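Field log, afternoon session.

UNIT: design team B
ACTIVITY: writing a sequence onto a fixed backbone
BACKBONE:
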């Protein structure tokens, strides 16, 4: 008979909440997962258990003992996963997405119209923008998520680059942290959908607006270029510069979204180039070109690493 001292007490943290689980050394991984299912409503098949940065479920069938896996009294485990309630919501959302995708495919077969520079907004220009905003209804505060998506959609600087580059996005929606923990954004089928990480990892609020908007500019670039090559980097940099230029001109009262004539040519001044870098990086204060260039490259690399659109990490809808 095992003594009390032979018990192994582990702490499993799920979305910021610790769950204390007592196990015997001969308890199996499956026993641990069953206890976690009762505590979190996440089924074993959807649980991802990270111990010392490694997935302890990988290449295991659930019959290995806790002791043989190296877990000791006081071990801490991080758990990722989707609850049964969230899974039902995701499935309902996916069904709705399939219906939306079918509608968008039917629209794509219709003739497209090109925006002409007339000095006023015309009906063709309405084709460029976000056709639907879709927060995830199974997550908390979908109303707040919808307001953030609406703010992005109505952002005058974003509307400006959408018109300027004739970008059309079928659905602007959110990317739940538990679905793809490493991603901040995803562009599906060159603008059919753009998914953005709106929420914090702990679901206790929303990420900073300027950070989300920067990711949106990155994903809009994928409407044109799939890979993170030089063509992509050039266009992505240009979009961020145009956002900064538009906002400066708007503050100075020299730019109007309805005045499309000014969209035909973009030649940023050195001062605007500097402001664009500061705007993209969220910086402030005196501009040091070398320092800002290093920060810019570091930030863009971080965005590429957390983007699921290009490369082997590319994900589907």
């Amino acid at each position: 008979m095992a003594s009390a001292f032979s018990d192994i007490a582990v702490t499993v943290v799920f979305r910021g909440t610790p769950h204390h689980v007592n196990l015997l050394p001969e308890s199996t991984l499956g026993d641990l997962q069953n206890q976690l299912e009762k505590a979190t409503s996440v089924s074993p098949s959807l649980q991802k258990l990270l111990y010392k940065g490694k997935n302890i479920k990988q290449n295991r069938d659930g019959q290995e003992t806790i002791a043989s896996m190296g877990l000791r009294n006081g071990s801490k485990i991080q758990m990722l996963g989707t609850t049964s309630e969230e899974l039902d919501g995701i499935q309902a959302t996916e069904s709705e997405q399939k219906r939306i995708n079918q509608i968008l495919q039917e629209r794509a077969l219709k003739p497209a119209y090109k925006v002409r520079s007339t000095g006023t907004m015309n009906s063709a220009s309405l084709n460029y923008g976000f056709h639907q905003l879709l927060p995830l209804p199974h997550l908390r505060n979908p109303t707040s998520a919808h307001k953030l998506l609406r703010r992005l959609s109505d952002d005058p600087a974003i509307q400006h680059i959408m018109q300027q580059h004739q970008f059309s996005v079928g659905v602007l929606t959110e990317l739940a942290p538990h679905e793809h923990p490493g991603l901040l954004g995803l562009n599906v089928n060159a603008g059919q959908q753009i998914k953005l990480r709106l929420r914090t990892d702990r679901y206790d609020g929303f990420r900073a607006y300027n950070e989300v908007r920067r990711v949106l500019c990155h994903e809009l670039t994928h409407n044109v270029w799939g890979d993170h090559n030089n063509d992509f980097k050039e266009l992505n940099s240009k979009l961020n510069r145009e956002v900064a230029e538009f906002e400066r001109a708007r503050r100075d009262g020299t730019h109007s979204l309805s005045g499309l004539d000014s969209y035909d040519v973009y030649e940023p001044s050195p001062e605007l180039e500097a402001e664009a870098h500061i705007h993209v990086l969220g910086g402030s204060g005196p501009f040091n070109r070398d320092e800002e260039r290093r920060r810019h490259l570091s930030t863009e690399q971080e965005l590429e690493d957390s983007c699921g659109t290009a490369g082997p990490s590319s994900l589907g809808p």
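LOG NOTE: DSSP finds eight helices and nine strands in the chain.
NEXT ACTIVITY: expression trials, pending approval
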